[in-house]
Design a protein that fits this description.
alpha/beta, 9 strands, KANL3/Tex30_Abhydrolase, about 210 residues
């Protein structure tokens, strides 16, 4: 797909009778092969939600370093008409840097809601450099916003997130920034498959309350 900053790619996982579209961007350290994005793409179409995994132009071009936030926003915005072409409500989402893009642009684009997976609330070890204002732009604009955050995420643990109207924070116990769960978590009854199931169930339940139900 052409954008002003290069060719992007959208991989569609379509529901038979879609009631909404969930558009998901990837992070700065990886692509749409991330475990949480793939799990949602596999699980949600059966419940009436089409999933669109969006690869930014820098990844499609094979580059290893993500460009500036403005460039990411430009590509995402250019793709929005294609993401909204089914005529059903579109939920803007993504993981890490992709979540930041969604939060920054959702209100302007007319998204129905925002899903932020592993939102990087601050750089690791630097809580004073908070990105809370960026996150809160979506709920402040009246958009329901769900954050799904690993309990061990060095970019911000669930309990670090601010409380705000319209913002819901769901924890994935033992999960790191990529929602990887260590083997020792099994002592608490948590494993990798269970963590991914928690993510997909949490998101599906939340989507059931967003516009387009």
């Amino acid at each position: 797909m052409p954008t002003p900053v290069g060719e992007a790619r959208i991989s569609w996982y379509r529901a038979a009778e879609p009631r909404r579209v969930l558009a998901l961007g990837h992070g700065a350290g990886g692509g749409v092969e991330a475990r949480d994005l793939r799990a949602l793409a596999a699980a949600l179409p059966a419940g009436g939600c089409t999933v669109a995994l969006v690869e930014q132009p820098w990844r499609v071009a094979g580059r290893k370093v993500a460009p500036a936030p403005k460039t990411l926003d430009t590509a995402w915005t250019a793709l929005w008409p294609d993401l909204a072409a089914d005529g059903v409500p579109v939920v803007a989402g993504g993981r890490s840097a992709g979540a930041r893009v969604a939060c920054r642009t959702a209100a302007e684009l007319g998204a129905a809601a925002v899903l932020a997976l592993a939102f990087p609330l601050h750089p690791p070890g630097r809580p004073e450099r908070s990105r809370a204002d960026e996150l809160l732009a979506a709920p402040a604009g009246g958009l329901p916003t769900l954050v799904v955050q690993g309990g061990r995420d060095g970019f911000g643990r669930p309990e670090e997130f601010p409380a705000a109207d319209g913002l819901t924070v769901a924890a994935v116990p033992w999960g790191d920034h990529g929602f990887a769960v260590p083997k020792k978590a099994s002592a608490d009854g948590v494993d990798q498959a269970g963590a991914l199931s928690l993510i997909t169930t949490t998101v599906a339940d939340w989507l059931g309350g967003t516009p387009g139900r």
